[in-house]
Amino acid sequence: MLINTATDPALAWQETALCAQTGPEFFFPAPGSSTREAKQLCNACEGRLACLEYALDNDERFGVWGGLSEKERDRLRRVDRDRA
């Protein structure tokens, strides 16, 4: 989930993100598994909004990003599209 922040300073939030301290399976659970724990960790992370913005800007389709699941991000995109 982490990207080289040396090449893109806008991604500096990833260096202190709480997800960097856990395994990827936590944020990319098996289909049908709970995302509750990942979302709780996201909600305690200072980089949550930057992470969510990154996921939306880069059309991340899988996993929990910024405290939202794939379905929740998709709903958010649709709401934003409808408002435009």
UniProtKB/TrEMBL annotation:
Domain 4Fe-4S Wbl-type: 18-75
Compartment annotation: Cytoplasm
Keyword ATP-binding: no
Cofactor note: Binds 1 [4Fe-4S] cluster per subunit. Following nitrosylation of the [4Fe-4S] cluster binds 1 [4Fe-8(NO)] cluster per subunit.
Binding site for [4Fe-4S] cluster: C19, C42, C45, C51
Principal location listed in the UniProt entry: cytoplasm
Record keywords, A-Z: 4Fe-4S, Cytoplasm, Disulfide bond, DNA-binding, Iron, Iron-sulfur, Metal-binding, Transcription, Transcription regulation
InterPro entries named among the record's database cross-references: 4FE4S_WBL, Whib
Post-translational modification: Upon Fe-S cluster removal intramolecular disulfide bonds are formed.
Cofactors demanded by this protein: [4Fe-4S] cluster
Highest taxon above the source species: Bacteria
Function, in words: Acts as a transcriptional regulator. Probably redox-responsive. The apo- but not holo-form probably binds DNA.
Family: Belongs to the WhiB family.
PANTHER family cross-referenced by the UniProt entry: TRANSCRIPTIONAL REGULATOR WHIB (PTHR38839:SF4), TRANSCRIPTIONAL REGULATOR WHID-RELATED (PTHR38839)
Entry protein name: Transcriptional regulator WhiB
